[in-house]
Amino acid sequence: MFEATKNLEFESVVRPSVADQIFEKLYQSVISLELLPGTKLSEAEVAKSFGVSRQPVRDAFYRLSDRGFLVIRPQRATTVSKISADALKQAQFIRTSLEIETIRVACNVLTNADLDDLGALLDEQEKAVQAADKEYFHRLDDRFHREICERAGLGFIWKLIQENKAHMDRVRFLSLSFASGTAYEEHILVYKALRQRNVDDTVQRMRDHLHNILNHFPRIREAHIDYFEKE
Asked: CA spacing 20 to 30 A to 7: which of 20, 23, 50, 116?
């Protein structure tokens, strides 16, 4: 069913636990739509595929459920959640509110070295766009926003965003089939405004960028109606 450790990437120097590895693999599988909304998951089958007991799988399932990716119901099959339009809108509102205030701080505190590192990250994003590598671009997209939070001294903001953006993540991934180039260009505009220390322009660029997911949503839902909850 799953390959336990193949192609997993961990940026932390701390060795991840078994539950962490299972969570990360399942998380990436849900985000990339390898595990489609509505797919049934069995603790026993996942544990067997990883060669572990059911406890770390149960822990990973709980974390995924807490993020909004799994629906766990007693005496019934655990399933990958369908995407909720309402949850998407809530996540977009929360994320925009948090990142707007973060980018204000970033304009004033990011060093030239920080900005150079963000520029190198954008170079990698361009390569991912040219290679049409959606999964890699998605990870780099997240990293761009996370790095801004952390380098502004507001790493806890990214943790709050992660806890609320489950439904947004899958819609973002679906949008990359036609909009990864647009997302990259929007990152460039945010970056240029940061370089100029222009707070008002940076805020507006970030606001426009994060709002675009709502502009893409009708097209995505129409193309993948079975992935979404009924309204």
From this structure: 116
Among the listed residues 136, 126, 131, the one whose alpha carbon sits nearest the alpha carbon of residue 187: 126
Could you tell me how many residues make up the chain?
231
**In angstroms, rounded to a whole number, what is the distance separating the alpha carbons of residues 102 and 203?**
9
Contact between 164 and 91 (Cβ < 8 Å): yes
Reduce the DSSP state of residue 80 to 3 states and report it: strand
Q: What are the tens digits of pLDDT across the range 1-14?
A: 444 443 434 344 45
Q: From the CB of residue 14, how many other CB atoms can be counted at a distance below 10 Å? A: 7
Between CA 82 and CA 30 the distance in angstroms is 11
CATH number at residue 118: 1.20.120.530
With respect to residue 6, please indicate whether it lies within any of the assigned structural domains.
no
Q: Is the pLDDT of residue 216 over 60?
A: yes
**pLDDT tens string 2-61:** 444 434 343 444 578 999 999 999 999 999 999 999 999 999 999 999 999 999 999 999
What 8-state DSSP symbol labels residue 228?
A: B
Pick the last residue of a domain from 32, 47, 80. Answer: 80
pLDDT tens profile 57-116 = 999 999 999 988 999 988 888 999 999 999 999 999 999 999 999 999 999 999 999 999
Instruction: Note the pLDDT of residue 14.
Output: 56
Phi (first) and psi of residue 172, to 5 degrees: -60, -45
- 34 and 134 assigned to the same domain: no
Which tokens hold the place of 163? Answer: 């806890």
The residue out of 59, 80, 101 marking a domain boundary is: 80
